[in-house]
Design goal:
Helix content is about 40%, strand content about 15%. The protein is α/β, with parallel strands linked by helices. Bound molecules: NADP nicotinamide-adenine-dinucleotide phosphate.
Length: about 250
C-alpha cells in the first residue's frame, strides 16, 4: 500500500475548484478531508475519486459557523492526528446589484464565508500544525483576480478577496517560526458553476455585456497540487492562473 503523501483538508470540496483539487490530491496519494455544507456533494466527490476511508473523510461543515469549523477540525484530528495542507477554497458572492441596493445581510454573509471562514479554518489548522510532530504544514488561500481588481457590482466579494491577501501575508509571516507556509492562488475564469455567467455574457466596466473565455478547472487543480507538493522550506507565495484571453491585463 502506498504511504499517504500527507493529510489535506479542502473546503468547498463538493463542487468546482474544491472538487477538482481534492480529486487531484487524492490521485497523487494524499489523504483528504472533504468539507462543505452539502453531504451529497462531498459523497459524489469521494465516489468520483474511487478513494475509500481512510484515504478520504467526508466532513460536512459550514465555514461561516465557528462551532461547525471546530467540529470539522476535531473530526480531522480524530481521524488522522495531523494536518499537512489546508486549502481555504469555500467561497460565495452576493447578488450583482448596484452598490446602494445591497443589504447588510448580503454583505455579512459574504464576509462570514469568504473571510471569517478562511480565518477560522486557518486558525484551527495553525494550531494543529504548530503542535504536531513533525511540526508545520501549508495553507493555501483561494483569492481571485478580484483580489487585484473588481468586477462591476461586486463590492462584498472584492472586499473579501482583497482581505484574503492580507490574511495570506499575515499567515506567511506569523507561520514562519512554526514551519507553517502560506500561499495564495488567484484564479480567473475557471469553468465552474460560479462562472457560467462568463459563458453567457457578463457586464463589463464600460456597460457592455460580453462573453468571456474560460479555462478548464483541471488546470487550477494541477496548480493547487503543485503548491501543496513543495517541501516546507519552499513556498509559492502568490500564483495567478487565468483564462489567457480574458479581460484583465491591458485595461480590458
Ligand atoms: N471559478 C473561478 O474562475 C474562480 C475565480 C476566482 C476565485 N474563485 C474562488 O474559488 C472558490 C471556489 O469557487 P468555484 O468556482 O469552484 O465555485 P463553486 O462550485 O460555487 O464552489 C464554492 C464551494 O464553496 C462551498 N461553500 C459555500 N459556502 C460555504 C459555507 N458556508 N461553508 C462551507 N462551504 C461552503 C460550496 O459548497 P456547499 O454549497 O456544499 O457548502 C461550494 O462547493 C471560491 O472561493 C471562489 O471565490 C473561483
Amino acid at each position: 500500500m502506498e504511504t499517504a503523501k500527507g493529510i489535506a483538508l479542502v473546503t468547498g470540496a463538493g463542487s468546482g475548484i474544491g472538487r477538482e483539487s481534492a480529486l487531484s490530491l487524492l490521485g497523487a496519494g494524499w489523504s483528504v478531508v472533504l468539507a462543505g455544507r452539502r453531504r451529497e456533494a462531498l459523497e459524489e466527490t469521494a465516489s468520483l475519486s474511487g478513494a475509500l476511508p481512510p484515504a478520504v473523510l467526508i466532513a460536512p461543515a459550514d465555514v461561516g459557523d465557528p462551532r461547525s469549523v471546530a467540529s470539522l477540525f476535531a473530526a480531522a484530528k480524530a481521524a488522522y492526528g495531523r494536518l499537512d495542507f489546508l486549502f481555504n477554497n469555500a467561497g460565495t458572492s452576493a447578488r450583482a446589484v448596484e452598490f446602494d441596493e445591497l443589504t447588510y445581510e448580503e454583505w455579512s454573509n459574504v464576509l462570514a464565508v469568504n473571510l471569517s471562514g478562511a480565518f477560522l479554518c486557518s486558525q484551527h489548522a495553525f494550531r494543529m500544525m504548530k503542535e504536531q510532530n513533525p511540526r508545520g504544514g501549508r495553507i493555501v488561500n483561494n483569492g481571485s483576480l478580484s483580489a487585484h481588481v473588481p468586477r462591476p457590482n461586486s463590492a462584498p466579494y472584492t472586499a473579501t478577496k482583497h482581505a484574503i491577501t492580507g490574511l495570506t501575508r499575515s499567515l506567511s509571516l506569523d507561520g514562519r517560526k512554526y514551519d507553517i507556509a502560506c500561499g495564495q492562488i488567484d484564479i480567473g475564469n475557471a469553468a465552474t458553476g460560479r462562472t457560467e455567467r462568463m459563458a453567457s455574457g457578463i457586464l463589463q466596466p464600460d456597460g457592455r455585456t460580453a462573453v468571456e473565455p474560460r479555462m478548464d478547472v483541471g488546470e487550477v487543480a494541477k496548480a493547487v497540487l503543485f503548491m501543496a507538493s513543495l517541501p516546507l522550506d519552499a513556498n509559492i507565495q502568490f500564483l495567478t492562473v487565468m483564462a489567457t484571453k480574458m479581460p484583465f491585463i491591458g485595461r480590458g
